[in-house]
Design a protein that fits this description.
It is built from 12 helices and 13 strands. By secondary structure, it is of the alpha/beta class. The protein folds into 2 domains: 218 residues, P-loop containing nucleotide triphosphate hydrolases (Rossmann fold); 67 residues, YebC, transcriptional regulation domain (Alpha-Beta Plaits, 2-Layer Sandwich), CATH 3.30.70.
Amino acid sequence: MFSFFVIFPGRPRQKTEHQTTNHQPTEPTILKQQILDIENLSKSYGKLEALKELDLSVERGQVFGLLGPNGSGKTTTLGIILGALHPNRGDFRWFGERLTEKSLKRIGAILEHPNFYPYLNAVDNLKIVARIRNSDVSDIDRVLRLTNLYDRRQHRYQTYSYGMKQRLAIAGALLGNPEVLILDEPTNGLDPLGIAEIRELIAGVAAEGTTIIMASHLLDEVQKICSHVAVLKQGRKLFAGSVDDVLNNTETILVGAESMEALEAALIEYPDYQSHKISSGFVEMKSNGVVRPAEINHFLFEKGIVCTHLSIRKKSLENYFLEITASNGGTNQAS
């Protein structure tokens, strides 16, 4: 595969109607505007098919995660949509148009490893980035404060921890206030504190209205950070949709009562019942869709059963990932 650090020229974002304080009724339409549309995208390296007929769409304001093991096609996808790689087949559009210099000016991106001059401090390194991006150097203070590096702005890059280097790369990508931020494995190689800092940073950037596309093989981070996710395996898309849809697709309800036999018989009649088993003295029931504890309690009470225990256990993204990759032939090995 390939490894590089990408900086695209940015420009100040134009104020749009939904950014005013008037709360116009057109806001939902603006927020649902399609940012990226990928159709039938395929890429091969010799006999190796790195990407196979990928279809994907990202809407404004989403934090979209590309999830998959190493070698699943995540970085290849990012390389293609940024113009660094040419697909063998398929097409993609940014903001409803083919990739142009104009659309690239609306995107900030980091692919793989950040690289800066080790003997320069953060400010001087970002001045170089600003010139490349045609951005105003007055924006440097803003991005340094946003990435929590302002107090270390005069320190040389070579003195930074890996987490600080990653945050400086994000600061560089944010110069010019791009509408879209693309990150490839932003928490890779970081310790738990560094991961938490990057997670908080991404959440802060997203809260300001920036659309974020993030590739990662860390399921827990995607679940905590992303609003939407696409699961890739061996270049193919296995699933794409809302993270909440994944987590709410099937829930497990733990229910206890004095008579386990009566409880089992009643739960089988529940409208969203899928299956159940006995576990640790409770009935562990799986349901289709979202179930509210109050509804279960009311349903059982009407059948003369008083619950002694009632709790909901949501499916994790990790469980869902393992299920769909197993049903499609197992998981990839890291490459």
